[in-house]
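At this stage, I put together one protein's amino acid sequence and its backbone structure tokens, which the following lines show:
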Amino acid sequence: MPCAPAAARWAQELAGGDPILLTYMTSVPRDWPLAISAALHGLPLVLQGVAQPWVGPGVRVHASREAATLLQAVAPSSTVASVHGSDLLVANAITAELKQRLRTMAAANEVLVAGECSASPFCYRDAFAADEEHQKCLRSGSAACYPNAGLYIASPRALVPLLTTWESVRMANDAPEHWSGMSSSDQLALHRLYLNRSAWLDPSSTRLRLDTDNQLHLSLYACKQEERLSHDLRRRRRQLARCTSRDFDPLSMLEISSNPHGLGLSVVLRDGGRAPARPLFVHANGNHSRLDSLTRMLLDQMRINPSAYARISRHPVLLIDAHPTFAPLQGAPCGVLPLGVLMNGSYSAQPARHNPPVAELVEQARSSSQIPAERNGIIDLLSFNDEIDMLSYRLRLHSQFVQQFVIIECDVTYSGAPKKLYAHEMLLKEYDRANDAHPSSTRPMLVFEGAWEGLQYRFTDITLAEPACRIRLVNLTLLPPRNLRHSAGHANVTAAWSRELQVRKFITHFVSSEFSGGQIVIISDVDELFDPAEAGQIRQDGNCVDGIANS
């Protein structure tokens, strides 16, 4: 298994996280609800197929079987939830009761499949009428009586035989005519497998059943039973092609709020007289707008809550079966990336239009400029709080084209809370390269008059062997907000904004005073990454501005 080493390291790092979320997506949106919600709730995430060509939903069955085999080797005691990646998210924190239910289910080799209120893409009335479990579900009043391929969950041990049989059903050449189209539809193949489960699945290795009480999955698809068949032939055909459990509009039954005990969401389904359900996942079933309100709440948490943003940025994602043109993995089919890197806009997960080797790009960039090489370096200046994994990845990625890194770090947060100098600690202690570090020097920053007088920093220059790069660590000591006369008379200038403004003003001065006109300075947050494939274009475009004013 070529992906086993990376998967084993990833599994060890996330020991105890359950269930593992497995999804197949060829492209990743910048604000990815599934991944953001998984990170906020601490659930491990595996992404298959990034940057691969999309060949239809049927590919998910074969891909999931390969992934389940890998996870059986590296995390045999886990449970795995195979989920649709683009229209599903984690709706609630996993409870102790649900964890115990998953353990019991795994021990019994059960595979729990999502239920929904409508049979899609076709309705096989006679077959479902003969299925006792389906009829029992209808009698209970549940709306989740038809299988949905958007989610199924089990131990890897139970998933492998299920997916092997599912793939055989999907690719069968002897299927009756009314089951045609299964090769391109994992959903259609699942319906046939479910209706024949007692004959085709060995109960000692796999037991298939539906999540009829919405404890794991809630489909947001709205169903309405037709009272009578239409006289219009086309409409009548559509009516006959769709079965529904009962009238059901889940959006009108939801209570949605932020998780009162931590990060993430809290979603409760109140369906008439049935017991309230807190589904672990909600699924839009292709109607993405039904997730809008939940997605907005997730994004609000990410943007205004520093701890949420940090957790999302650092969350490690295992990538398997990635296309060789996916730049962050540098041609490897497997690897682990922080979620912040994966969702960054510089890396939309699409096959590259043309990605020559980085060394070739850097050489092209150097030869395209008339400025001497020693004055023509790219300076990567970034502000840093505590995003250690992201910083480590950025150093590896940007060192391919950057002459020097400058890392600006304060010993307090913008809210004023004391913090460690994490970048200093990582680079000087964990990397253990003290012999490469020049002695620190401290000097007063007297560039600004009035409000800014007394702003100080100290810097440490180090050179790393791996990744090969030069780094200037800058520890900026911020002035107390009450000492800043710029905020006098402005009630809307908060203490946090005063601190952030100091950092911005310092960066402005630092760039104009420390670097020559022939150098190009990239200024960004640590998670705003640059594509190495575009390194040559920076020099060709020239300077964006002629200079920086100290204002």
